[in-house]
Design goal:
The protein has 205 residues and is of the alpha/beta class. Helices cover 30% and strands 30% of the residues. Strand 2, helix 2 and strand 3 (57-62) form a beta-alpha-beta unit.
């Protein structure tokens, strides 16, 4: 049984998905499975995924597009590990991403549900670093998450699967901000910690 389930939802962006997959396979922490959920794309995504000859990769497809929340929920439903990490198909992890977060998770108190990380904000077309998100908030984030989002998006989060199940996974009715909504619901029951260093590139395009 793998320790971490990595969920990658993909939406007609096969040219970037290959970079995302490779960044997972290059992790220094290797005890994971990869669940790629194709949200009804029209591209030849399945063939591209099969080109990665790695039995840790599992491919699922929605017949019609259902949105980011539904794609991630499909991944959660199919996951087997105690911990879940998310990676958007247009982002890219650094090699020590999972290792660094698992180190913090192992020494965290039981009430900690998720470990998030810093990241670089990068312009896709030029590779220019436009900004950097540095975590500063840990513990009880329930009040702060109502005012803003100190965590960021899904690509920087590693979370306990049992906590996701307890709060009800992603709200599939929301067209956007599904991540912040989930963080708010998690914060009502659990706590958060972080890795300060940037562990991924969050691409804007």
């Amino acid at each position: 049984m793998p320790q971490v389930s990595v969920i990658i939802p993909t939406f007609n962006r096969a040219q970037w998905l290959s970079v995302a997959i490779r960044s997972v396979l290059n992790q220094t922490f290797e005890d994971f499975e990869v669940l790629i959920v194709d949200d009804g794309s029209s591209e030849r995504t399945a063939e591209m995924v099969k080109s990665f000859d790695d039995n840790r990769i599992h491919y699922f497809r929605h017949a019609t597009p259902r949105g980011g929340g539904a794609a991630r929920n499909t991944g959660i439903a199919q996951s087997r590990a105690a911990y879940v990490a998310f990676l958007d198909d247009d982002d890219e992890w650094f090699p020590r991403k999972l290792e660094s977060q698992m180190e913090v998770m192992r020494r965290s108190e039981p009430e900690v549900a998720g470990i998030y990380s810093g990241y670089f904000i990068v312009e896709r077309s030029t590779g220019r670093v436009c900004g950097r998100m540095t975590p500063k908030a840990r513990g009880d984030l329930s009040a702060e998450l109502l005012a803003n989002n100190p965590i960021g998006g899904t690509s920087c989060m590693l979370v306990k699967r049992e906590c996701l199940e307890q709060v009800g996974r992603f709200d599939e009715s929301l067209p956007s901000f599904q991540d912040r909504d989930l963080w708010i619901r998690l914060s009502r029951e659990f706590r958060f910690d972080y890795v300060e260093e940037p562990l991924l590139n969050y691409y804007i395009h």
